Amino acid sequence: MVAFPYYPIGNSLYNVALSLFIPTIFFFFAGATYRIGRYLITYHSPLDVNPSMPLRGKVSGGEKIKDLVNTVANSSKVGAKRKPITTIVGLLMHLTLILIIFLLAQHMIFWAYYIPPYSALFPLAIPESAEDGLLALTMPGHPTTTMAYTFVNDIWGPLTVILNGQILTYLLMVFLAIYLAHKFYALAERLVIRAGDWWFFLLLFIDVVLGFLASSHIPNNVTWYDNLLGAHILVAEIIIATLPFTRGFHMFEFWFGKVREWYFMTFRRGAK
Amino acid sequence: MSTTITQQIDLEKLKQAIDEVVYTQIDSTILYYVQSCVNCKACEAGCPFSADGLEYSPVNKAEITRQLVRARFTVWGMTIGRVIGGAKKYLKLDEAQTLADYVWHCTDCGSCMFVCPMAIDSGALIELMKQISFKAGIIPKVYKELEDLEVSEKYWDIKEIQDIWNGLINKIGETIGKSVQLDKKNSEILLYSSLYEALVYPDVIIKTAKILDMLGKDWTFMSKPLGIRPPIGIVIGDSEGSVEVMKRIYEYFKEINPKYVIMTSGGYDYPTLRYRMHEILKVKPNYEVAHITEALAKWYEEGEFEIEQLDEVITWHDPCQLSKRGGVIEPPRVLLKALSKKFKELPNHGVNTLCCSGGGGSCSLPSTIENLAKMIGYTLDESDKKFLEDRVKSLKNAGKKKIEEINKIKPQKVLTGCPVCKESIGFSIDYYKADSKVYHIVEILADRIKVKGK
């Protein structure tokens, strides 16, 4: 029996995935330019037909800021009141996803490699697990490098018991499953279900599962690890490259939509 | 859905209508509404017609427009989308029937936009469906008849209509004790009213005139209405007809040259005459179109009058077009807080107000439409009757939610600022036997305004 069997370094999906990252970003920007370009080409400058509105008066600066906050918060507030389950699941799903994508320690290293200033966020890093990786309160390590010290001494403190990659991933899988179930419900109700609903959710679900398996070393084998991690990155790259053509792009347009609503109501209508 | 209406569908005509509307109306806003929807169905929570069935939720209704746009303007829609769904160049008969059904299950109240996390106005997409529907001739005949009369101005040839309008002018004169100045140029205020308001709440017009007179304002009234409820074309999908009517209205406003055009209606005509008319005609008005509550709130705050208080629980139903589309939220509350210390907000108010389901695209109470039809000598056929019956079902479903929230705060008086809201909520109060009564705010204020120094 060979204790350390031959491992073909450089011959795994991991390397393929890494080498495709830059082309992925290129595709993303090309797609985003296409999408935004279409908006610009079809844009018509609105005619401001609002007279000085002496009867209604002007909206003050403070009111405008308050309006902006209300505008962004309104849909969640109304949703929580009238459709509490789907709204709360939706909010938690987004929160979990954002935490995992942008603050999971392993992901942060990846982002910081391509975007060096990202390392400024290292103190916010969330450990992969509360039980292993020597990056958590329950199993503190004694780091010898500056980078490891930053991760061990994060600002989350005892919160890392629940605020860690594993727990967040379990939650995310549950929330995504509820979302998928919601889609099946809509299908049963004969409501419109778009191809994009399945495509995006399915890719996301697969990607989360792949990331979970790789980071948990299931199965516990180096070749499997490299391939699973590679597949995880590859699926993420497909998601990123196709973002401008899928519902995933809402992460950028959400802000635009709400600011547009605010402009429409507060500036064009002078809502008071 | 009215089966008789769907039998009229001419698929060739519909194809032509789809091409005409979709190819000419695309702009960045519509593109955003098409591309950015994530199908989260949050808009269900805001739409009054979701109570009729989830298929009437805004995202589901607007999907027809999205599919037609995708088939023409997206790479996916022009290729794979046509095969696997999600993009349609034209509609089959059953899809056309669905379109005809959906367009009359939207009041364009705007709720979907404020509830949508992406701020998508599904009403704007359904309006495109309405234009397609109109061009393809899929429209309740009674609405077409009323609009034709309005566009051609022939409504004024009907003696009964003239009598109603002239009777209103006489009653205003009797109330203020002098003859009414008609079409007086350069007046500070033009009191604007449509024939519809003269029909459903003449008292509100008379009391508004009384208030203006009490306050010593320089005001004038119209010698004849500018339409039945102009421009009807906006709500039934006739963009060309509505432009003709808007031109007529704008010319009249320009000729009279008032400082303020004051209206008592907070229905679709408010945002149309205030904003949309000028946007479509590309003109900058030198007058301000305002709802009566905007004017009264301003004059009250400036100390022109006091308000004798009521010792009753009152509440305010925000008309959708006045609040969501028009941005008038605060002025009525200035007056209501002065009117009663027991003013209470409805659980859903402001931009989140629950629509009464009677306005915009639904065009009022079926009984009012029947009366109008009778007046113009139009006999409702079976398809019209079936269509109006379906409207009653929606009014009951939406009204139930409204009455439930009214009952939560148990007001003696529900005040509002729109003729259709007043009618629809009045209908629901009667149907569900609620203890409240509904009034236009002017009906209560007119007798409680005390002009300082008088």
Which tags fit this structure?
heterodimer; A: 272 residues; mainly alpha; two-stranded antiparallel sheet; 1% strand; globular; B: 454 residues; alpha/beta; four-stranded parallel sheet; 23 helices; 9 strands; transmembrane helix (chain A); transmembrane (chain A)
Question: How would you characterize the overall build of this protein?
Answer:
The complex is a heterodimer of chains A (272) and B (454). Chain A is mainly α and 272 residues long. Chain A has 10 helices and 2 strands, in the order αααααββααααα. The longest helix of chain A is centred in the middle third of the chain and has 24 residues, at 165-188. In chain B, the strands form 3 sheets. In chain B, strands 2-1-3-4 form a 4-stranded parallel β-sheet, sandwiched between helices. The model of chain B has no long low-confidence stretch (mean pLDDT 93). Chains A and B meet through helix 2, helix 3, helix 4, helix 8 and helix 10 of A and helix 3, helix 4, helix 8, helix 16 and helix 17 of B.
In a few lines, what is going on in this structure?
Chain A has ten helices and two strands; from the N terminus they run H-H-H-H-H-E-E-H-H-H-H-H. By secondary structure, chain A is mainly alpha-helical. In chain A, a hairpin with a 2-residue loop joins strand 1 (about 135) and strand 2.
